Amino acid sequence: MTTLDPTTDTITTDPAARDLMTLTTPDAAKLADLHRTLERRSDAADLLDIAYTVIDSPIGPLLLAATDKGLVRVGFEREGFDRVLDSLASRISPRILRAPTRLDAAARELDEYFAGRRTGFDLPLDYSLSSGFRQTVQRHLSDIAYGTTETYKEVAEIVGNPKAVRAVGSACATNPLPVVVPCHRVLRTDGSLGGYLGGLEAKTALLTLEAAA
User: Fold this and answer.
1) Which of 16, 55, 66, 154 is the most buried (most CB within 10 A)?
2) What is the C-alpha separation between 70 and 32, in angstroms, rounded?
3) How far apart are CA 117 and CA 110, in angstroms?
4) Residues identified as active-site
5) Distance CA 197, CA 203 (A)
6) What burial class does residue 98 get, using C-beta atoms within 10 Å of its C-beta: 0-12 exposed, 13-18 middle, 19+ buried?
7) Mean pLDDT of 91-95
8) pLDDT per residue as tens digits for the range 185-208
9) Cβ 110 vs Cβ 123: under 8 Å
10) Which has the closest alpha carbon to 175: 147, 140, 210?
C-alpha cells in the first residue's frame, strides 16, 4: 500500500507493496531475454528494416546502424543518438530496433581498427543517405589509403569536378559513415583540418592513430 506522509510530503510504500513490485518487475536479465526474443521474431517476420547498437570507442560512443544492404550510419554522441535514430526513421524506415548481433561484424572491425590491427574495412555499405555528387565523393573516400591524406581540391579533381571544392567539403561534412568511410583523411589545401562531424578532436585522434601505425 502506498501512502502520502503529511509530515514529509513524500510517498512511502509498505513492505508488502515493495515485495509485489519486485515480483512483477522484470530484472535486467529477463528484460534482455525479452529483447532478444523480440529481435529474433522481428527478423524472422521481416519486420526489422534498420538494426542499431552503440559501441564504445577511443573517440567516444558510436551508434552503428545497418539495413539489409549494409552499414548505413555511424553516429557520434555529439550528434544526439535520438536525433540520429529519428532521422533514420524519417528517411529510411520507422521499423528500427536495437539488434547488436546484426552489427557484430561492424563492431569487431571497428575494434580492430582502433587497436591498430586493421587498415581497411570489409563491410557492405548502404549509401542510401547520400545521392548525386555527395555520394560520388563519399564513395571515393575509401580509396584514400590508410595513413595518407588528400585535400578537398585533390578530391574534386579526382572525381572529375575540379571547381567543386566547396561541394567536396560539404560531402565530407555530411558523410553518414565516418571512420569507416574515412572523410577524416581529407584536409584543406593549406593542410589545416577543416570540419568534421565528430569534432576536430576526434579527427585529430584518427589521423594520429593512423600516423602511428
Assistant:
1) 66
2) 25
3) 10
4) 183
5) 9
6) middle
7) 96
8) 999 989 899 889 999 999 999 999
9) no
10) 140
Q: What grid cell was written down for 21? A: 513490485
Q: How far apart are CA 95 and CA 66, in angstroms?
A: 12
Cα separation values, 10 from 3, 6, 7, 133, Å: 8, 7, 8, 60
Which pLDDT does position 47 carry in this prediction? 77
Taking the whole predicted model, whether its pTM rises above 0.85 is answered as no
Residues, the chain, total?
213
Calpha distance 64→102 (Å, rounded): 10
* pLDDT for res 115: 97
Mean pLDDT of the chain: 86
For 47-92, what is each residue's pLDDT tens digit?
A: 799 999 999 999 999 999 999 999 999 999 999 999 999 999 999 9
Reply yes or no on whether the pLDDT at 34 is more than 50: no
Q: Could you tell me the sign of the dihedral formed by the alpha carbons of 81, 84, 86, 89, in that order?
A: negative
Strands 2-5 and 10-13: antiparallel
* Alpha helices (runs of H) in the chain, residue ranges in sequence order: 15-24, 28-44, 81-91, 104-114, 132-141, 152-158, 165-173, 200-212
Q: Are 12 and 2 spatial neighbours (Cβ–Cβ below 8 Å)?
A: yes
Question: Which cell numbers in the block locate residue 210?
Answer: 593512423
